[in-house]
């Protein structure tokens, strides 16, 4: 029996609760606010977070929470839940059916459990540390595709990409030339789950937050993939540059990102 299985089950229940609420509210009239120039938040983001946090704290009242919409009760507990209640808010608000709930658990600073639920496609991605990664109960393995020129990659752009020159545009152009294709699907957690499932061979992005990546990072690692900083360095979910891949193309992707950075600096 996996040590983190009970925690995973509670996270799955919380994700399903929020997921069915999101499915029910998808395409219904919404109250939408702007957090920044392009960064939306809807009543569904906030209510999903409330449902998830309530469910987790019901079962684990002394645990800490780090969640995107601001529910952050902090305790001395070594356990912290990291939650993106709705990843892909822009998609959700525009009726584009590609978004998810993402919930991860850290224990003593290590990712130990992760759940990503795509409620429209009814796809539940789960992982526990040392216990493997699964999609609807079927074991996941990253792809075996290489070299870079034969691969399909994922990425995204920060909300401040129009005003800040650190915006990923140059990396995008370089990889668009070098790889078979790139998808910008609009939900970083699902991009990482797609690497774990072998649907994408690699993913990179900058300025992501811990809740965008926590569950997805565990999924990729448990599916046999690699996660690092852009230069291949050790990764933490608090770093703002992430490179994830099937491992086979990791070196080629890191070299490309370093080359673009040095050209930008020159
Ligand atoms: C966003 C999505 C998107 C990524 C953005 C994130 P949100 O999260 O993951 O794919 O490119 O940087 O902020 O705002 O939809 O939760
Ligand atoms: Ca997000
Ligand atoms: Ca979100």
From TrEMBL:
GO terms for biological process: inositol metabolic process; phosphatidylinositol phosphate biosynthetic process; signal transduction. The keyword Hydrolase applies. GO terms for molecular function: inositol monophosphate 1-phosphatase activity; metal ion binding. It catalyses: a myo-inositol phosphate + H2O = myo-inositol + phosphate. Its cofactor is Mg(2+). Mg(2+) binds at residues 68, 84, 86-87, 212. Belongs to the inositol monophosphatase superfamily. This is Inositol-1-monophosphatase. It comes from Pelobacter propionicus (strain DSM 2379 / NBRC 103807 / OttBd1). The lineage of its organism: Bacteria, Pseudomonadati, Thermodesulfobacteriota, Desulfuromonadia, Desulfuromonadales.
């Amino acid at each position: 029996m996996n040590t983190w299985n009970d925690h995973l089950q509670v996270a799955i229940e919380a994700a399903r609760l929020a997921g069915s609420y999101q499915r029910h509210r998808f395409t219904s009239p919404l109250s939408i606010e702007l957090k920044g120039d392009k960064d939306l938040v809807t009543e569904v983001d906030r209510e999903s977070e409330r449902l998830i946090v309530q469910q987790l704290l019901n079962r684990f009242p002394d645990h800490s929470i780090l969640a995107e919409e601001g529910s952050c009760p902090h305790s001395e507990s070594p356990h912290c839940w990291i939650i993106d209640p709705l990843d892909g808010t822009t998609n959700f608000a525009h009726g584009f059916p590609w978004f998810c709930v993402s919930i991860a658990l850290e224990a003593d600073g290590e990712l130990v459990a992760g759940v990503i639920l795509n409620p429209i496609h009814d796809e539940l991605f789960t992982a526990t540390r040392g216990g493997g990664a699964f999609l609807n109960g079927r074991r996941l393995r990253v792809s075996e595709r290489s070299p870079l020129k034969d691969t399909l990659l994922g990425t995204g752009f920060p909300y401040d990409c129009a005003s800040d020159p650190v915006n990923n545009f140059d990396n995008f152009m370089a990889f668009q030339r070098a790889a078979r294709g790139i998808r910008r699907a609009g939900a970083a957690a699902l991009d990482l789950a797609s690497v774990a499932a072998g649907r994408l061979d690699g993913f990179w992005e900058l300025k992501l937050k811990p809740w965008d990546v926590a569950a997805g990072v565990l999924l990729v690692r448990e599916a046999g993939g690699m996660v690092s900083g852009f230069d291949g360095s050790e990764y933490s979910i608090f770093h703002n540059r992430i490179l994830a891949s099937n491992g086979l193309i990791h070196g080629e992707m890191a070299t490309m990102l370093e080359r673009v950075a040095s050209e930008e600096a020159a």
